Structure formats: C-alpha cells, structure tokens
Amino acid sequence: QLNMAKKREAFLKEFKEGPLQFKPTYKFDLDSEVYDTSEKKRKPAWTDRILWKVKNLGEVASKEGEFPEEENPISVTLNNYLSHMSYGISDHKPVTGTFKLEMKPLVSDPLVMLNPEGEWSVEHDVLIHYSAAPELPSSAWDWIGLFQVTFKHVKDYVTYAWVEDDEISSNGNSKQVYMSASEIPKTGGEFLLCYYSNNLQSIVGISEPFQV
Hints:
Blueprint: H1 2-8, H2 57-63, E1 74-83, E2 95-103, E3 112-117, E4 126-132, E5 143-148, E6 159-162, E7 167-171, E8 174-179, E9 190-197, E10 202-206, E11 210-211
C-alpha cells in the first residue's frame, strides 16, 4: 500500500525507507507477541514505518551561486531499522531507526578568528582577541562564549561576553573583548572560545583549545 502510494503521490516519491527485516508490527494482542485473536482477526501489517528525505540544499544554493549542485552539504545514512517486540502496552510494536548525519561546511574559512590572550585564571579579568571577515553580518547581539572542549550545543557555554558591550579596543576588524574573572570556572580545565552570530544563528568561529 505504501509502495503504491509512493508511485502515485508526488510528495512521497523522494522519501526513502530501509529494508523491512522485522516482522509486521500490527496487530497484536495486548502484552503479547501474538497477532490478533479477536473476532476480527486482522491481518498482520507493517503499519509502523520510518521514511526520510534530505532536502536538496545543493540544488537551491546552486541557483544562487553558492556552491555546485552536486555538493549537497547534508548526507544521511540509515544504520539500523528495528522493531521492538518486548513492548506490550499497545497493539502496535514500536519501530526505531538510527541514522548517521554528516554535514559539510558551507564555508571553507571561518568568518571569525579568535584567541585568548595571556594566562587565563580566576585571579584577574581575561582578554579575548578576535578579527572578523568583512562579509560577517555583525550584530549588537553577537557574543563570544567560553565552552568546555566537550561541548555539544551552543547553549552549553560556561560564560559569555557581548562583543559590543564588553569591547575594550578596536582597530578595524581587529578587536579586544574582556571577560570577568568572576565568571571563569575555578576548577580550570581545557576550554574553547566560540563566536556566535545572531544574524546567522550559528557559531562562526572557534579558537584552538587552551588551559584555564
């Protein structure tokens, strides 16, 4: 039924699905692995499915001259596609898929280069030096965050400094920002500095790791 719909409906044609290497996931008697024993005796069916599609960003961007059409920046690979028969609270068995997502950078060079200056400790305020590319759409809401090297999300910052409010010197695209010593973690460790662009809603520069 799904395969017929994919041939018929244009919006479904580009969706992919992994191989169905598990038993039909519907319809079970509750709290069991026995298919429907009621009077209706419904036929087992693969009603629980995972489909996916990668939007062709390369095709869109190539029209704007950003990068060649064949270089789609997003690649998705299905690692496994499984049903879970141990769950019995429904007449369906749940299905999960695990994917590998790879994203190519949209730019070859960072828009911001930044470095910590001097020794970083809780004994004194610290300085950050950064330089921005002319094409960076800067904003008063841009900030530089201090992150542990193991950070996974932009909200994982330990502390941050506003690039305008905390600026202490500027010479063209080369600027200095201070960060208060009271915000530096007393436990120390290995950290990174990241520049967050409010207009691009993204980190656009990351420093080399350094010790606090």
